[in-house]
Amino acid sequence: MKKLINDPSTVVRDMLEGVVALSPAAILLADENVVIRSGLPESGQRKVAVLSGGGSGHEPAHAGYVGSGMLTAAVAGDIFTSPSTDAVLAGIKAAAGSAGALVIVKNYTGDRLNFGLSAELARAEGIPVEIVVIADDVALKDTVSADRRRGIAGTVLVHKLAGAAAEQGLPLADVARIARSAADKLSSMGISLGSCTLPSVGKPGFFLGEREIEVGLGIHGEQGVRRMPIASADRLTSLILETIEADGRIRNGDRVVLLVNGLGSTPPMELSIVARSAIGFLEQKGIAVERAWAGTFLSALDMPGFSLSIMHVDDAALGLIDAPTDASAWPRGGAVNRNRVLPSTKEAEDGAPSGAKTTMAGERLRQTTEMLAKALIAAEPQLTELDSITGDGDLGASMTRGSEALLALPKESFGDVSSGLMAMANAMRKAIGGSSGPFYATGLMRASRHLAGLEQPTAAQLAEAFVAAVQAVSELGGAKQGDRTMVDALYPAAKTFKDKVAEGLSADAAWRAAVEAGMAGAEATISMKPRLGRASYLGERAVGHPDGGAIAVSIWLRAIMAT
Fold it and tell me: In which element (H, E) is residue 501 found?
């Protein structure tokens, strides 16, 4: 287990001390793991207090939602364990005044018992308390009755509405009514790509196969209602929303807000992809998405995966959602962009003039391009592995994207060698956003200009163009032979081809020699210390592994020889 903690036994307290250190809106009780809003007025002047909590490990819930306009207090138990009755009671007594308190509880037995008993004890001391139970997990629709479903990430939305209502000065009964109405209109469901690791246990709670996922899991590291093969983000998003729809919770004409929640280790990139899918699905169903957010709102430690929460709203509910709060974890905003794509004004780039004839040399270039593209696609695993050792691991995918772009070029793009090379340059430039794209595009463009106007270039002219292309790559990136880059394969290949042609060898023989020189150059990078690129950050650690870019060059050099 690798975790940034001090001691498993002090994880919760250490975490809460960090939370309040970063949130001027919150303060921590000395004797209990309870975070309350700082600067509360005297008891008789307080508005309705809104409390929630539960086991820790769900950060930023619940302490991150303490602040004006949201929670008045959050009670934290041990990891995935309900807080004690005494801790909850301490929170109620610290936060509530004469206006009373609303306690929001997720529907788990431990939480219901401890929060429920503490509420009864508080009432016995004269503090008015109302309880709202959240049971939003639609994954359990065929397993248990609606009132026994779990409370998961949609709870955060109830926090927001109840907190805003309390901040408006509404009485306890009205705040409770608004919270219960929100809970009734709320549906959530989660999907996990893997388990999480409790600090006190040190190993995952369950194990999944490489291609397996858990559907309909809770937020305490437990398994879901079923296991299935991994699918695309679009399909998994649809699976959740179709389940909510089958539960009768959404239909054409509804107005909703959407919460896309990461379970702890899901990166923003993937959550944005899910958000795109969810908003598109709902809009196609004729459902108005009034607000939407994507982020980690209620996690399960370091679990990979996501949940979706849908809540029906009207204008009054939207007003409460949009009301200000200084709770540090609330994302604010949430407006959905209705005009998401700007129409392109870019003119189409033609590979060759309409009606232009195709030369024999142009056709041969097209065939050669097809061979080298297929060779690079086949080599994706090898290139990915190499680049993962000394780079960022994207070379295989980049070469595949570029190769697929080359294969998609129409035959008309290869009217002659020059126009074909220019079309290839444009394709590589558009398909590859990393360093490989600019390098290959620059070299191909330089070669294209050298061969412009030549219907059937000679071997000597092709050799000059090759040398010019390599020079362009070297100028663009600043690499020289010996720097451990693609130039270490390109330079000896181009020089050898030019020299052998000048010696009178046939084009085929000269190219075979060039390929051997390029492969030897790529192999030589194994013993080189990198001076440029990401590999240079590794220094001596990169020695012993060939440069991925140079190996990629050797692959397409060999493919050209095969034609």
Answer: helix 487-502
C-alpha angle 528-511-402 in degrees, rounded to nearest 5: 65
Residues ≥6 apart with Cβ < 8 Å to 270: 233, 262, 306
**Residue 173 Cα distances to 102, 132, 178, 315, 559, angstroms:** 9, 11, 9, 21, 77
pLDDT digits (tens, 9 = 90+) for 314-354: 999 999 999 999 999 999 899 999 988 888 766 545 444 54
- Please give the single-letter amino acid code of residue 254: D
b/e 478-512 (16+ beta carbons within 10 angstroms → b): ebebebbbbbbbbbbbbbbbbebbeeebeeeebbb
**DSSP secondary structure, 431-447, as one string:** H--SSHHHHHHHHHHHH
Kindly report the backbone phi and psi dihedral angles of residue 341, in degrees, each rounded to the nearest multiple of 5, phi listed first.
-130, 125
Contact 129, 83 (CB under 8 A): no
How far apart (Å, rounded) are the C-alpha atoms in residues 153 and 422? 52
**Residue numbers annotated as active site:** 220
Strand segments (E) across 12-115 = 26-28, 34-37, 49-56, 73-79, 101-106
| pTM for this entry | 0.78
DSSP 24: T
SS3 state at 186:
strand
Tokens of 274: 């899910």
Please count the other Cβ atoms lying within 10 Å of the Cβ belonging to residue 355: 7
Give 145-161 pLDDT, tens digit per residue.
Answer: 999 999 999 999 999 99
Angle at Cα 381 formed by Cα 377 and Cα 386, nearest 5°?
A: 115
